Amino acid sequence: MEVVNAIGRRKAAVARVFVSEGTGKITINKRDLANYFPSSILQFIVKQPLNTLNVAEQYDIRINLGGGGFKGQSEAARLAIARALVKINPEDKATLRAEGFITRDPREVERKKPGRPKARKRFQFSKR
């Protein structure tokens, strides 16, 4: 099997994933998964598509992550891994879609408007 690549985005985070046959090693920005995401919850989010299909020990995954915060980055990596797995085996798409791993979360930060302190917040109204 050659290297399969895919891209995933969430908020401001972008994840480029390269999947090849291997032993289940996940490397993010040339660091180990446990080193990059010390939180076990974020590690779980990244591994969700692999665990759903029971293929966690079959592939080596290299991820380039940039932008956003750690939560957005972990979810971007999850989407990219799911897309790469669908490229490898298209029959897995229905299973991953049922779990919600194929859908790109479209929510983005709303821009700040001029004359206001934040996007929607207004300065206190003064009657007099």
What features would you describe in this structure?
The protein has helices at residues 33-36, 40-53, 70-88, 93-99; strands at 4-10, 13-21, 26-28, 31-32, 59-66. Strands 1-2-5-3-4 form a 5-stranded mixed β-sheet. The chain is built from 4 helices and 5 strands. It is an alpha+beta fold and 128 residues long. It has a single domain, classed as Ribosomal Protein S5, domain 2. The relative contact order is 0.21. Helices cover 34% and strands 23% of the residues.
Low-confidence regions: none
The main sheet comes to:
5 strands, mixed
Number of helical regions: 4
Shape: elongated
Which fold name is given in CATH as the topology?
Ribosomal Protein S5, domain 2
- Radius of gyration computed on alpha carbons: 18 Å
- CA(first)-CA(last) distance: 73 Å
Secondary-structure element string: EEEEHHEHH
| Overall number of structural domains | 1
Structural class: alpha+beta
Mean pLDDT across all amino acids: 93
Name of the CATH first level = Alpha Beta
Number of strands: 5
Q: Report the portion of residues in β strands.
A: 15-25%
Task: Walk across the major sheet and give the strand order.
Answer: 1-2-5-3-4
CATH architecture grouping: 2-Layer Sandwich
Observed structural traits:
4 helices; five-stranded mixed β-sheet; Ribosomal Protein S5, domain 2; 5 strands; elongated; alpha+beta; about 35% helix
Which helices and strands, and how do they pair?
Elements: E1 4-10, E2 13-21, E3 26-28, E4 31-32, H1 33-36, H2 40-53, E5 59-66, H3 70-88, H4 93-99
Parallel strand pairs: 3-5
Antiparallel strand pairs: 1-2, 2-5, 3-4
